[in-house]
Structures are given as C-alpha cells and as structure tokens.
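Schema walk-through. Below, the input block comes first and the output block second. Nothing else is stored per chain. Lengths vary across the set, and this one has 171 residues.
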Amino acid sequence: MALTRRTTLLAGAALGGAALLSGCADEARPAPEAAERSAAAERVRTHAARDSRALLARYDATLAAHPGLGARLRVLRDEVAHHIEAFTSGAPSAAPSASTASTASTASAASDSAPGVPADERSARAALADAERTLADSRTAALVSAPPELARLLASVAAAGAAHAYLLTEA
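--- output ---
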C-alpha cells in the first residue's frame, strides 16, 4: 500500500501529539527519588520498622518461653530481623551500619515489654501466626500511600508475613 501525503501527515501529527502528551505527563509527576525520600514515605518506613521490632520482640519472648520451638521459629525470627534492616537501611537519615546496631538494641529493649506468651507451644505458635497475619494486613493497607519502591518492599514483607503465618499454623 502506497503512503499518500495525507496519510503521512496524519500519522506524523498523531505521533507528535502522543510525544507531546507523554512529555507533559512525565513533567507533572514528581521524581521517583523524591517520592521515596518524602516525609510521608519516611513515616511509612518508620512505622513498618517499629511494627517489625514489636514482632521480633514477640518471637524472642516465645523462644524464651518455649525453647523447644527454636528450630522452627529461629528462621522466621531471623527473617523478621532482616525486614527491620530493609526498612531502616533505605531510610535517608539512617546509615546501614548504625541501623543494624540500633535494631539489636531496640529489639532487646522491646522484648522487655513483649506481650505474654501462651503456656502451650501450639497456642504460642497460633499467637505468633495471628500477629504475623495482622501485620501483613496492615502492610497491605499501607501500600496505597507508599511510593513505588517502598510499596514493593511492603508488599514483599507482607507476603513473607502471610507465609510465616501459614508455616506457624502448619501441623
């Protein structure tokens, strides 16, 4: 099919209009780096790290009350500690080496105020599973207000929490 002058002009106009519209759309959006470093993102990160510290304290209290669960819980507990590092290492005000040290000290301080642990192992695992599920739901709800990279991190950690809840309730 031969291109006529009229078809060529219409195609050029359509492509030019699309280029102009996409250029305008890119200028209207804030830079992704700015959104990741915003005050709102920092609040979400801080809240997520605080929630992970509380969950870590719960794991520590459960391990102290039920040492027999050590083999089963230690891996999950270590993952929660990694989640704290992930939330604090991306924060603009925290240095990676300082965040690791503060995570350990905060976790030990939080374990002093940890909630009571059920007396039997099955109930203790169920309580941890409930805490994991609640936190996963909270993180899923926070996705709406999070910038893209932080939303991906929240979604990943929420999925891990849901998997932890499943593993804790598995017979």
